[in-house]
Each structure stands twice: as C-alpha cells, then as structure tokens.
Design a protein that fits this description.
The complex is a heterodimer of chains A (about 425) and B (about 180).
Chain A lengths: L8 H9 L9 H65 L5 H4 L43 H5 L1 H16 L1 H6 L18 H19 L9 H5 L2 E14 L9 E11 L4 E17 L18 E21 L3 E22 L10 E4 L4 E16 L4 E12 L10 E13 L2
Antiparallel strand pairs in A: 1-2, 1-9, 2-3, 3-4, 4-5, 5-6, 5-7, 7-8, 8-9
Helix pairs in contact in A: 5-7
Chain B lengths: L1 H9 L3 H22 L3 H17 L10 H19 L9 H5 L14 H9 L3 H12 L4 H8 L3 H23 L1
Helix pairs in contact in B: 1-2, 2-3, 2-4, 3-4, 7-9, 8-9
The chains are: A alpha+beta (about 425), B mainly alpha (about 180).
Chain lengths: ~425, ~180
Amino acid sequence: MSNEQHNDPLEEFFKKKVQEYDIEYQEEDWLKLERRLDAAEADQNKQSYWKRYSAAAAVILLLSVLAYYTYEQQQKIDQLNERLTRSEQVTDPQSKPTEILPEGLFNFSFPAESSDNHPLNRSEPNPSSNNNIVDGTQNNSGNTQREEKLNKDSYQSTIVLASLSDPEKFITEETPFAGTKVSGFAGKDLTPRNAKNQFTSISNATKSSNGFNTKNQLPRRETSQFTIGLIGGPDMSTVGGISNFYNPGYKIGLSAEYALTKNLAISVGAIHSRVQYTASGNDYNPPEGYWSYGAVPQETVGKCLLIDIPISLKYNVLHFDDSRIFASGGVSSYIMLNEDYRFDYGGYSSGQPQRWQERTGTRHWMSNAVFSLGYEMDLKSNISLRIEPFIKVPIQEVGWANVKLYSMGSFISVNYNIF
Amino acid sequence: MIKEIIQGCQKRQRKSQKELYKMFYGYGMSITLRYADSREQAAEVLNDAFMKVFTNIEKYNPNRSFKPWLRQIIVNTAINQYHKNQNKFQKTDLESINQKPARKQEVLSGMSYDEIIEMVQQLTPAYRTVFNLYVIEGFKHKEIADMLDIAVGTSKSNLSKAKKNLQSIVEKNFI
C-alpha cells in the first residue's frame, strides 16, 4: 500500500469525509448471513459425517476380511489336527513299533521345540534299555556290549531314519526289532539333525495344510524373479502436514520388480502424477523476493504434473493360498514437469500476482519417503492384482515453492511375472 | 474483549459471530458502500466478506490487529465482486450523470456522508473502484493495475476521469 501523499484537495476531501460514517446496524443483514452460516455448517457436517462413515466402513471391511481369514485358517488347523489325531488313534493300538520311538519324536504339535531339549538328543543311554541303539559318538566309550552290536545298531539307525521320513509306513512295517523298546536314542551326528529336518518338514506341511504359502503351493513365486506392473490410482496431496486435502489428483505409470528372495523384492517405477493441493502462506515458500509487496497469499492452490520415481523394498508379510499381504518402504524422486499455482490473498492482498505457472523440469532426488501396505491377489499363474495404500512423507522440499509435500493414496496395479 | 469474541468465533459460536458482526458492521459497510452500486449490494458484499472471515478465522494472527485484517478482506471481496460483475457493467458516462436531477445547493464542506457516498456510487464501477483504491485505500497505480488486471495507464486514466466526474457532479448538484 502506498504511503504517498495525495495533495489534491478533492482527494483529501473525500478521504476525510468517508471516515465520518455513522451507519446503523441492520438485524436483517445479520439474519441473511446467519442463514448462510447455517447452510455452510450443515454442509460441513454432512461432509464430516460422510468421512466418518467412510472411515468406519473401511475399518469394518478390514476387520471382516481379517476375521474371515482367521476363521478360515482356524478351520484348516482344526481339520489337520483332527486328521493327525485320527492317524495316531489308528496306529497306536496295533503297533508296538511306535513304542520304539523316542518319546515325543513325532510330537507334531511342537515343531519348534529345541533339539537340545528333545529326547532325541539325550546322549545318555537309558539304563533300563536292553537294546539301545548306539550313537556313533559313543563307540569309544568302552562299552563292549555296544561295540558288539555296532552293525546291528547301524541297521537299526537306518530303519529309524527311514521311520522319520515316513513314520506311517514305518510304524506299520515289520522290522527286525519290532516289539523292542528303545528309549535311549542319541544319534547326535545324524538323528537330531534329521529329526529337526523332519520337524521342519512337518511344520511346513502343517503350514501348507493351513493354507500358508509354501514352495509346493505356489511354484510361480519361486520362479518369478522379474515382474512388471501397470500402476494407477488416486493421489491426495497436501503440504505442511497431513490435513487440509484438496481435490484428488492421479498417478499412472509402470513398475519393475526383481525378487531378491522368496519374500523380498526391490522395485522401481516411473509414475506420471498430477498432484493438487492447497497451501497456507507459511507452507508455501517461493524464491526470496517474489512477494514484492511483503504480503503472502492466505491460500495457494497448486496443480503440478510430475514424474514420480519410487525405489522401494517390498516384503511379503503374510501368505494365503493365492494371495499375500506385503509391506514396502523406500524413497521417491520427483521430476517436476509443470507447476501451476494460483494465489488467493483473502485478507492480505496488496496487488500481488494471481498466478505462477511454468514448465520447470526441476529434479528432486529422494525427496520423499514412501511407505505402503498392500494386498496382492493372483489372477492367473503369472498375473496378479495389487491394492497398495501408500503414504509419502517429505524428506526435503520440492517444487518452485519449496513445499513439504505429503501424499496419500492407493496404487492399484496389474502385475505380470516375466520369468 | 475482541480476543474473547474471536476465540468464540474460532469455536464456531454463533453468539460470538453475531457480536463480531455487530461490532464491525458500520465499519464494514462504510467500505462496501463506496464500492457498491447500492446499499443492498453493499450489504451483500459485506456478508460475503464476513463469510470469509468466519470460515478462515483460524488463519487470523491474534498478534496482529483485527481491523486491518478485516478491512483487507472486505476490500478484496469488493474487488472480487468488481471482477464478477465486470461483464454486467453498463457504462455510465458524464452525460448520464448530468441527467440526474439537481439536489441541494450546498458547498463541499457541508456535504453529508450519505451524499458523498451517493456521489461516489454514481461513478462507473471501473472509475469508482480505482478512485476508492487509490484515494481512500492508498494503493499505488501499479498495485491497482495488478489487482484489477488492467494496465497502469488505464488505472491513471480511470482515476483522472473519476475525479473529473466527481467535480462535475459537485458543480452540477451542490454549487
């Protein structure tokens, strides 16, 4: 605003006269305004309710999906336990050979039990045993009886190992030592390892039966190391903090993913994005001196086109039969294609420019951190669909106006496993 | 007291909103009347401005004086109204002003506030807006040109014509 003196008498006269106002308050004008305020408030409440209901619906949906999967898994576990129980019941009364097995050898319910504590690891032979299977490490113990039975023990060990790999077959099979009771079994060099392997195998089988992914169930996950995807989805952006969102923008692009292990993959993308946001004066920082009259706009509406280049690590957290839940984290780099800002001065206008627009092409490497949690569903053996809600938080300021850009949204992608 | 009222407005309390409105109604109307064609239009612009005030009250910095903040919102709202109505404006030239019937023959110093406002309202919106912004609000021609999206020369020309028209109105009607 100018401080220059206007010496024109007419100007001075008007300037002075307009200060001499005496305007009476009109209730009618307030009532008009009050009606508008009521309408605006009702509209705001409606939006607020809609947001709350949407959030509640999303939470209910999520909980329902989780409950369904939990129920399904529990059903499968119950079925498996039932089968195992039946199997044990069938074999128990008939076969003495089960008695020759160390206690707990086929205790499937505790696959994680430490081998150190497992009866298989007992190095001390059971004194009550008449036909102990001799551990190779015990051969130098001076026990003559054991030395004499070395050959037989080796044979017995082989049989026991066979039983580990196929217990059902073993327990129904006639063996030379059927009916003998072996309670001391200490094959340190062979048995614990094999037992452990067996437990792992059982554990995997259990998992498999429970519906979790195994190598056998989804072979494509083993073989598909390189995946490409077509990505799209909405983008909600804001600056300064996660609030005050403007109209949604969009993201569309391509991604490439390389599997480092069965569960871990690295991915990179090139995503054309339209980012729209509103910024208050404090969050919008154009080059120094741009606000030539000192005042800043109350609100700036930014509409930018950019290329988003995310690089992230993806980890499969949970596997289901033909789907999985994954989490990913990484960084995004932005290449600004076009920046368009419109300024609303509201309360502090003083002849400022109304708009700034330019094809800037500036690059902001690793400007945002990206986190996402997604759900992937196999459509075919080599095609999958992913829904991946994400959040991007600023590491550094971006754009001509140096804003801290937050983005939220959800990638929806179709992915193809090339090899 | 004003701080308490503003705090109430920030909590969307209708009572506080009304108090603030009443408190600054006269001040606000004294601005909008100069930019509007009529009292009704002035009240409408004032209400538009207060809607902005109430919906953006969180952005008000309590460390700054409220009155200048309100004034700038009102002036901006009036300018927005000027842009909106730009196509509707019908040029009112000096001749049409001169066709107005003669009023009281008084000297300038004896003119009332209402008469002054009435004179200003007789100017075309383009002349009136530049006159208000330059003479009353104190903006420079460069700033006015930016605000109204016109050339600096146009701003100067409009001011000159506004003053000439006002002098003519005074001479015709009051002297």
